Amino acid sequence: MTPTERSMQIRIRLIGVIFVAAFLAIAARAGYLQLVMAEDLAARGNQQHQRVIKLTPQRGAIYDRNGEELALSLEVKSLYANPREIKNLRKVAKLLAPVLGITKKRLRRKLAEKKSFVWIERRLSPKLAQQVADFKLPGLHFVREHKRYYPRGQVASQVIGFTGLDPKGLEGIELIYDADLQGEAGLLISERDARGRGLATAGQVVRGGAPGGSLFLTIDRTLQYIAEKELARQVKASGAVGGTVVMLEPASGRVLAMASQPSYNPNAINRYRPADWRNRAVSDAFEPGSIFKPFLLAGVLEEGLLSPSSRIDCENGRFEVGGKTIRDHKRYGKLKLAEIIKYSSNIGFAKLGKKLERERLYNYIRDFGFGEKTGIDLPGEEDGLVRSPNRWFEIDLATISFGQGISVTPLQMVAAMGVIANGGLLMEPYLVEKIVDGQGAQVYRRQPHAVRRVISESTARLVRNMMVGVTEAGGTGTRGAVAGYGVAGKTGTAQKVDPVTGGYSVDKRVASFIGMLPAENPALVVLVTVDEPQNQPYGGLVAAPVFSRIADESMRYLDIPPTEVVARRELPESRKKTQLKRRKKNVQPVRADVGKRMPNFRGMSYRQVLDAMGRKGLNIKLSGSGKVVEQSPRAGEAIRYGAEIWVRFGA
Known about the structure:
This protein is of the alpha+beta class. It has three domains: 51-217, Penicillin-binding protein 2a (Domain 2), CATH 3.90.1310.10; 221-557, DD-peptidase/beta-lactamase superfamily (Beta-lactamase), CATH 3.40.710; 590-650, Trypsin Inhibitor V, Chain A, CATH 3.30.10. The protein has 20 helices and 24 strands. Strands 2, 3, 4, 5, 8, 16 and 17 form a seven-stranded mixed β-sheet that branches. The chain has a five-stranded antiparallel β-sheet with strand order 10-9-21-20-19, with helices on both faces. A hairpin with a 5-residue loop joins strand 2 and strand 3. It starts with a helix and ends with a strand. The relative contact order is 0.09.
């Protein structure tokens, strides 16, 4: 074989090898695309000839502790157009523009787009959707979406928060639990050609999503309404700039009501200022003033530095500390500990603070939960301000002892007072009791959590008993008393810091009252603060009456029997003996509403029924939502002892 022939044969074989290798590579690639990448490529192909629009997902509902709806997602219609199907653009614009409240020019611009899908208006009201449907215009179509709705309006608005159009949670519970509430979005799919143009002959397909999880709160909508109603009434009457009410179940840490003023309606969020959205109960820190005093008293008793019979010299109303003068509102001499808190002597508490000294007082302040976030499931919580004791001068020790030079949030204050109410344990406050998924299966349940023991049960009971004197004759909080119940309370009037001068304002104060009842075994702890009330800035005059009204209505709503006999008039001797026997046998006293006649509640709203309950002093069990459809007893009938009184709401 000649060299030329050998060279030719090598080239032929080489080319053959290349062809075989190329064939194997192509075959391998084809196999990979067909077997491994088939689903992905099919999806890409669909994307190229399909237009996919995400629809608003069905967000989970939010309920109160009794299962009453506070937030839900309603199914509504959204309007879109296929401009390629529209024959008379001017006619469509002329008919639609006035109904939708947009200009004809803007609507014609939308309808003139060379697309197969254009949003016209999303989440229409049922009335508006029906008006558009009645036109029967070709090229206009509806698709079902979901719109967030708050059936109770302003009730618990700062707790619940609100959503955007996405809908993503933007404030409150809606924000913190957004991932749990957010459902899976449905899809609107339309066909298009190779150039991305919509096919006029192709229809739209809707693929359903999945609903989000739902939350059950610790909030009770009736207690929340009572708190909001009474707070708003006092803020308006006193000319105040705002206020808060927080109601806590001390044994568990459940927040039963949390109200702030000013408030807002989340169904019309754009009508309100961002400042109105703020939940003051967790985001606003203030100097507590005298409502802080029970915690110092608890520390002194817990350390055994003094006994209940000990007396403190209150220096006739004037006392020098660190070059500064501390004054009382009256000239007091030697007072027992119960009298010091009853009369709210600043001098007495300055001396108690000196006995406890810096480090121990600071430790008790921190143990009661001040200076750190409570861990509540809400956004924007502040931790307050507690300075390190190595920065305290002698006057600082004195002023902190009666609630100045320290800042707290309303929620911190209620949680701390819960320690005295429940026997010495600091419970972590919380708002969400349980979470269920879109199918109703429980996925989470919160259990009460004790953070730590702060004081002993005996100390808590001693302080509680001493605080009862505040609401009795001669105390600073007599207007916080509730007929039939022992109330352990404390008034507070704290000067606000002037941001311009850096010193205390001459005329701006926070009036407050905090109390628990029944004092023997508290079921509720309630704090009321009124920010910058005019004319009467004192907690005993402004905040205490609000507490009394809220506590009175709440006790009747919760059906907690009175623990004391209300002495309205002198009773015959036989009646006195009967009541004495009842008290000895621990028999519940006759209900306050016995003997009254049942009003006609038919057709009334929830608020109207609650208002009537407050005016007539009735304790009625409420259920359902809407208007009153049924009641027992019937209208005009007498309310008998032992009979169940109820009202049912319905559509």
